[in-house]
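Office hours follow-up: a student asked to see two folded examples consecutively, so here they are.
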Amino acid sequence: MPFTVGFVLAMAFVVAQAQQMNISRGSSLTPTTNSSWLSRSGVYAFGFYKQGNGYAVGIFLAGIPQTTIVWTAKRDDSPLPTNVTLDFTSDGFSLKPTPGQSFVIEYTSGSSASMLDSGNFVIYNARQDIVWQSFEHPTDTLLPGQILFAEDELFSAKSESDHSTGIFRLKMQADGNLVQYPVNTPDIAQYAYYSSGTDGRGMNVTLNFGADGHLYLLNDTRSNIRNITNGGLPADQATIYLMRIDADGIFRLYSHDLNHKGSRSMVWESSNDKCDPKGVCGLNSYCVLLDLEAECRCLPGFVSANPRNKTSGCSRNLVADGCEHKNETLTHTMEELESTWEDISYVDLTLSDKEACKRACLEDCNCEAALFDDTSCRKQRLPLRYGRRQVNTSNIALIKLCFALAAFGSILFAISVVLLCKHNVWAYKRVNTPIRDSELNEDIALQPYTYEELEKITNNFTEEVGRGASGTVYKGVILASQKPVAVMLEGTVEIPIPPSPNSILSTI
């Protein structure tokens, strides 16, 4: 299929910026002028690309509007300034002035280099033998013709715009299994969230990528032991395929249509459940799938460490550790979550009663949570990780909430405001002064509610219906009248509390 006129013109413009295809020693690049070396067709480029507040060096699709990085050199280094030069010398590729570190692509006796049309950047010796190639050092992406060898891994990027190493990995294991894990975990089934199911099917198994989008596993006898994708897609000059483990932990097959400005389409993905990758939500938070998107929620009694970054996890907003407050009067409660977590228990009790499990944790000041599954009660210390909500499951997480009470002292506690819904429209109002009966949509009087009563009204705050500037709104029902209400948990304020675990919190 021929290129469109628009694409040809775009390529001509880029080629005019960097005409080189065979790169000799002594050649150099800078971020702002002569910034890349192109492949013969102009589809791929090796050189500087924009990264954060500076630049990085890598391989990318050239001549298309959407920035698409397929390989990055020294991906975890700080962004480079505009005044650097990348030199091709007899010692390697080096940066000058060097900002505190060397930049060398390791090879021996390199005399020339080339950016190939396959997307592979290669270095040759004097006999034109390849002594180094980017295809043998993948980061997060594979291209057609590229192989992931046994024991090799791909690591996700941190985000679409930050190509440094992220928190997920895809490994071609020596046992023949292609498996996905979070980073910094052992290669065992407990931490896997995707597997090709081909362990024991041969030695030196490799992941291979055909020009038609075919991803498949070959064993050491070159026998196909598993098709990851079926292939059979158009294989022409106007379509570029790539496979990437994305920042969200799922690996996908993409196509880029060069006839339409490189527009990208997702062809296949290892999972359509974005809560599958373990670690997509940070410590002490759990993943909830809403409209096919992953939402991270904090454990009860915790707040997000960074609301703009869901992998940052959550930290306590109340007493941190009951064992550190032995001289104070403590009140404890256990909140239930239908969820699964990594099991890091320090005690495993044989209990078939959930209430007994709660008591066992409440009586142990070291116990901060417990995992209960109808047959056992596993006491946990924090932090909890790899959490996700599981509805209608026997797995229940029991989270300890601790409140320190002192006579006529103070405690930070959330104030809950309950408003009725009229005409089936959920609404909430932040209240800083008492509300007169006439100001309510329905004719009822204000009354105090305990926290436990609000839990019952909202069914443990399970159905979130909105967010305000300072709090979360939950759906609830007044049990006596069955009237619908909206309950908003707002911020924290300091209120005097008498030394009694049954103290009443009034709406204000």
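And the second, which I mentioned at the end of office hours:
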Amino acid sequence: MRRPPPLAPLLRRLSSHPSDCPAVHASLIKSSSLSGPIPATALLTAYANAGLPSAASRLFGEMPARDAVAWNALLACLVRHARPAAAADAFRGMAAAGLAPTAATLCTVAKACVASRALRPGRQVHARSVLACHADVVMATVLVDLYMSCGLVEEAMRVFRCTDCPKDVALYNAVISGYVENGRFREVFLMLGRIELNGITLTCALTACSATANLMYGMQVHCKALRRGFSSETILCNALINMYAKCGGTMAARMIFDRMVCRNVVSWSSMIDAYSHHGHGEAALDLFKMMEKAEPVVLPNMVTFSAVLSACRQSGLVDDGRATLHLMKNQYGINPGPEHYACFIDLLGRAGQIDEAWDLYCSFSSNQSELSGSICVAMLNACIANMDVVRGNKVALHLLEVDPENSGSHVLISNFHAAARQWSESDESRRTIMDKGLRKEAASSHISSTG
């Protein structure tokens, strides 16, 4: 009779090579070694690490004995692979099996609630963690994430203030990220002076500076990054490029970009977008050509091409915009989305090439499922710019069908009718906004120094 293979080498193999899961699984079945929860749980975790959550779930269902560790491993797998509903079902199954949740269980379930913004079950997990005395700094961090993601800033801060154990940088980062997400930028700047900064904290702070176009604070954060030795981190450099660009400092943004040790697709796209927003179309196109020749190779994505097309639109570069769409489809195999076609239609409209814009628009309007609000808006703006009333009236009807509840659509239609001196139709569009109780989003602007 063959002796079963020793478990330790197999489990070590799983930890170092998760892709070997099927072979190790077969070996464990042949040796009848899966009857205990330890090897089965190790295999389940390996399946999760290998990106195979369905295989992990099937293995869990076949386990003859499941302890709290096995349940926690399943929950962690489901949360990691963005299956919050399945994680909630597993948590209920664990309770039905008569197993009390551990601190790890509650923390994992709370993460599932954050992923799905499930406030009510999240509050239940919060209550159970307090009753079971499992309220440690890790749980506090997850709960702060939960309440911040649901817009409940004060509840999040109550959790933060009531955390008795020493607060770590992860908890502070959760608070700062939540403040940024909820537009509480003043609180972000106040908290920065109270904590030890790391790369994540500085990146969150720069996001706040970008959103408020606050160049003074942004430069202070940059100085802190330099002093603490974080200035070579790619993610932080990308945030610096975005901050300086939003504050009008394209030269400073380019200086950061040129000094980067490692540039990824976000780095290139951010710098191209910076040139685009400030009307430097030729510079944006030159940088895109540099990106195509860069070593190591960095492939452009949908966002990159959006930035390039926007640069063409801002500078009226019709031929370059047309070539960019062709390059996107034929060389890189990326199907342009509605935002790309809308940008190109807007470019054609600004250049007075209304017939080509109309032909492209008609290729979408013939199929209602492909017609988006952004494409209709771009075409209607093109009609306004070229005073094409006949086509504009058709586009206005399409826009009302595609995006009837958007107040901005009704305002644009009203402006079109006013430009065409169709006063009764313009007044009707305005009345529709009031009758439906639609609100136009408030605009904002910032004046900042350039660099």
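Two things to take away from it. Confidence is low (pLDDT under 50) at residues 442-451. DSSP finds 26 helices and no strands in the chain.
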